[in-house]
Known about the structure:
The chain is α+β, with helices and mostly antiparallel strands. Helix content is 31%, strand content 29%. Strands 10-11-12-13 form a 4-stranded antiparallel β-sheet, with no helix packed on it. 32% of the residues are buried.
Amino acid sequence: MLGIDFSVLFKRPDHSQDKPNNKNNGENDFSGCEHGLMPLICKINWISVRIKKIAILLGCFYYLAGFGSTIDEANKALSIYDYFKAKKLFYKSLRKSPSDAGYGLSVIYYRTDNPFTNLDSAAKYIALSRQRFVAANTSQRAKRAAIDSMASLISTKGYDVYALSATVAGVEHYPRFFYFAPDSLKQRAIDRRDSMLFSVLSFYERSDSLVWFMEHYPESNWCTKARETYEYYVYREQVKTSSAPELKQFISRFPANRYRMKAEADLFQWVRGTHEPGEVYTFIKQYSTGLTSEQAWKYLYSISVKNYSEKELQNFLATYPDYPYKQSVEKEINLSATLLLPVRDLHDKWGYVDTLGHWVIAPRYDDANAFSEGFAAVCAGDSCFYIDKEGKRSSVFSFDETSDYINGVAVVKQSGHYYLINRTGQYVSQAYDEMNDPSSQLYVVKKNGHYGAINNKGAVVIPISYAKLGDFKNGFAYYVSDHYGLIDTLNKAYKAEWDWVSDVDTDRLAIVKKGNGYGVIHAPDQVILTPGFDYVKPCTQSVFLVVKQGLYGFYDAPGRCFISEPAYDYKPQFDPAYYSNGKLFKRVHEDEVALADVNGRVSIDYGRYEDIFFARDELIRIVKNQKFGFVDRKLKVIVNPELDKASDFEQDRAIVEKKDVSSLIDRSGKALFSCKNCELKPLGDYYLVQTGEQNGLLDHNGKYVLQPVYDEITELYRHYMTAREKDQLFLLNLQTGELKKL
Length: 742
C-alpha cells in the first residue's frame, strides 16, 4: 500500500548463538591494566564478575539439592562444567520435573562459557520453569527466588540484546519471547519500537504512512503524536497552493482536522481580498466558525454599508436578516442623523458638534478622538476615559492613555502598563510593558524584555518568548531569535535564517536580507529571488526594484523572473514608485530617461525629455530644459514645458507654478484659478489657498468656497470643515455651502 520498504527495520538480528571467547571467555583478560591503579581496578572487576557467576551456580545448586537422582546427576555435571552431560540429563528430566529441569537448562543456555549459549532458549526454559513451578511447602520459596533471579538476569540480557536492536523486528522479539520480563522493560521496548517506526514513517512525510502506523499500533503512546502529524500531512497534501477551491474542499472534507482553523483563516483572507459581499456571505454560511464568524460578519457590514444612512442600514438588515449584531445596527440607525464631530474651540478645548453646528457635548476636554463603536476617547488633565454620544462616561475607569475601540476592545495605558479593556472599561488582559495596535486581529505585546501576541480576548496566541516580534500583516509577522524568521497567526514559527525580514504584503511576499544581500521570499519560507542585491523595494505590489553595484532593474515577483536585469543608473533620492507603476518602467542612463513597457517596447526613447512621470488622468508630466509640462499618451503637447513646478493630475486637476503665479489647471491646460505669491494645496476634494497668513478654500472648478480671510481651515470628516477667523469659529457644510458660527 505504501510503497515503503520496511525490510531493514523488520529483519530480526541473529543473536541465536552468543559464542564464548575461545581463549579464556574474557574472565582473565587484564589487557590495558599495566599502569597505575588499573591492575587493581581490573582485578576487582574480575573478582566481582566471578562472585556473580558463583552466586548463580550456588543458587542453581541450592535449588537442585535434594532432587531425584537424574536432576542430582545433572546438577553435579553442571557444577564441574560438563555442559554436554548436564544438558542431556536435564532434557531427560523435563517430563518428570519440568520446573527443575527447565531451570537447569536456562542456566546452561544463559551462560557464555559453553557451546550451547542461546538466549532465546534460556528464555524458553526459564519461562517453563516459572510456569510449572509448584510450591509444595515453605522451604521451596528459595527455589522460587532462584527461578525469579534467573528470570531477571535473562530478561535484562534479553533487553540489551533485542530491545536495543537497530531493527523493529529485533525490538518486537523482546516482549513476545521474553513475556516474563518486568512490565517496565517490556513497555520500554514497545516505546522504542514505536519511536523507531514513527521516525521512519515521518521521514516519508505522507499521511498514509501514519494511517498504517495508527492502524497497526492503536495502543501506542505515539498515536497522539502520529495523529497530530497525520493531520498536518493531510493539510499539506490537500492544500498545495492555498487556492480558494483547495481550502474550501479541505474544510468540507476534514472538518475535525486541527489545521481546519488555518484553512478557514486563509480562506477568510482570500474572501476579504475579493471585496464581494456575496463571497463573504457564502463564506459565513458554509465555512466560517467561531474563529472568523465575528470578523466575517463585521467585514460584510463594513463593505456593504458605506455612508451609514438610515436607508442603507435598513437595506443591510433586510438583505441579511440573520446578522447577529442587529441591535448595534438599530442603534446606529437611531443615531445616524446625529453624527458628532470632534472640534477644538477658540480656547483649545475639545467638544463635539452635530452636523447642524450645535454643540452637543460642550468643549471641556484637552484632547478628543472621533467616535468609534459608540464611544469616544477623551482626556481632561492627566485623566483619559470614554464617553458616549450623550457625553456620559462609559465607566468609572480612567487611564493615562487611550485608543479607539476596535471589535469591542481598546488598548489603554495605566501606571506604566498596557491593557486591553472591554466596553465597560474592565481589563480583559494582563499587564504588558508595550502593546501595539491590532493587526490581523492580534496585539503584539512586550513583557520582561520578550515579545509575543494576544487576541482581543486577552489570551496569549503567540508565546511571549521572542527577542522581537513585528506586527502581523497578511497572516505573518517577523520574529527575532538569533536571526529573523516568520511566524503565522497560528503560532507556527518558520526557520529563523535571515538577518532581516520585512512585513509580508498581500501577495505573501517579503523582502529578506542575508549577509549584505537582499532578496524576496514567498511566505513563509520559499525563496523566489535569492538574496544578493544591494537594495530591493517594491515599486508596486508585484514589481520590485532591484539594485546591484549602482545599477537597477525590475523583478516580477508573481512571474518569478526579471523584467529587466540591473542595467540602469540608480538614483537613491527617488522612491521606488518613481521608477515603475507596474505597467511602465523608467530607464535612466547617463542622466537621460526612457520609458518602456513590460515587454521592453520603448514608448518614449532617450533624449526626448530630461524626466518622465507616469500618466495620471491620461496625461504625462514631463521635464524639458528643467521646466515642467504635460503631454498626452500620443506625446502631443498639452501644456508647454515652461512651468517651474507641477503636480500630477488628480481628478482632472493639477497644481502648477510659473514664476510667482500658482494655478489650478484642467486637463486641457486651462487655468481655472490663479494667484500671485500664494500657495495652493489639495485639502480633501478641495484646494487650500494660502496668501501670507490668510487661508481660503477653492472648489473643483477653482471658485472660492471661502475667501482667503481665515486664520485656519481644518478638514473634519467627509464634507465638514471648520474655519477660524480671529475670535470666531465656523462649521462649514460643503454639501449645502452653509457656514454656521459655533
